[in-house]
Design a protein that fits this description.
The longest helix has 10 residues. The strands form 3 sheets. The protein has a 16-stranded antiparallel beta sheet that branches. Strands 5, 6, 7, 8, 9, 10, 11, 12 and 13 form a 9-stranded antiparallel beta sheet that branches. Strands 22, 23, 24, 25, 26, 27 and 28 form a 7-stranded antiparallel beta sheet that branches. Helix content is about 5%, strand content about 60%. The chain is mainly beta. The N and C termini lie far apart (about 50 Å). α2 packs antiparallel against α3. The protein contains 3 helices and 32 strands. The chain is flat and about 70 Å long. InterPro entries: TAT_signal.
Amino acid sequence: MNSTTRRRLGGALAVRATALGLTAGLALTGGSASAVPAATAERAAQAAQLSDFGYRGDVYGVKLVTDSVEALNLKDAHAQQLCTRAVGQVVERTSVASVPDNPLIHVSASTSRTETYASGNQHGVRGTNTIGDITIGGTVGPLTTPKLVIKGLQTTAEAFNTPQGYGHAESFTFASISLELLDNTLVESLPPELQQLLAPLDQVTDTVFTGTQQAAQQVFQVLSDVTEPIQIPGLGSIALGYENGRANANNAQSQASALRIDVTAGERRQLVELGTARVRMGGPAPVGVFRSGGTAMDYQALQGALRFGNVQHKALPCQGSRGRTQTYRVAAASQLVPVPVLLDGVTYQVNGDQMKAKKVAKGWSRTAISSVSIPSAQLVVSDVSSRAAMRQKTGKRVTSKISTAIGAITVGGQAVPVPAPGEVVELPNGIGEIQRQLVDTGYRGSQVIALRITLYSEAVVIDLARTAGRIYAK
């Protein structure tokens, strides 16, 4: 087996014209680009009122998830508030329409908003998403399914602090809902859970049921009471996404996702999350806020037309973890098109602490994958990991330390040399190349990608074990 190892000066990557290349400088923001450039956000925060809390918000209208991997290009109206200590910060995003690659699913204009605030003795962060119209099902060519229409769906999540301590609040509402069943459907023959869902609605005809916002809480209550998604024969299923929060002496978080609709009619199965808001805050944050964490995989194909990743991304809380290591595990994840990639044994670890007396914040993040398999290339990589450590003294540049590890690489069962940090190895038969340890370092810290795999003929670039360790003063 022939393979070639070569070092790239300065860690730069000159990918062939057919390859796409994720930029090493991407901010680690849960798989999506920052709502505003980091430098712009920093300048805006300088003029804002600073608190001793760290805030974060993440709100979006539509998300498509398959086997723990997101289709990132379908995540619309994504308003993301990166970790900040500033109050009065607002991020708002809108989308005109979203059709998640399925003619049976139509989502109209969506608006997402996150904001940090201070009102009297209360500090908090609030996230809200509103979707104008959602239509699931109907008639597409020869196929006719039940039709579900929801108007004015709104999701709100809020985390706050008062002199009495931390708290949280979550809510859902909608303007109207309509479910049109197939002709000749006998309501008495429907699943009992679906009959419960229809009970708060007005029966307009034998097969059409409608309700206004007065029925909204009853409908959401039915969805929250059942243990399994409610089946809509001929269409799929509907379920409440989630609605929960927690608060303790040091932080609060709130998250709500209005609906999860699994459309099984037609040629493909599609699971879509609608109306999601997640916010959190905590303290104390006397030095700054951490923007640190990891994601197991970033995947681009077809010249950037498709983006996948965010394998249950985990981030260090903005204020840190009070010096405790937090560990999260994902047993397996996969991305099946256009080139299948299978991940086993994903582990995220984060740790951060702030010492007010010393005016120092420090911590680290680590991302690890036990095994990565790309069957079409007969490529298997074991024990991929990256780690980013950071330390900042107030007013000083963040010092960083990064490291990566790779266990073994095989193609067709035969060993391929593991590249040293910064080196590139050509894969056999000219199928592609792999590069280890791509690093982006700046004033606020570093980001590292453990391994980048480029497959030439498929025009696919796969980044594995991406970890960021950054601290921002504002």
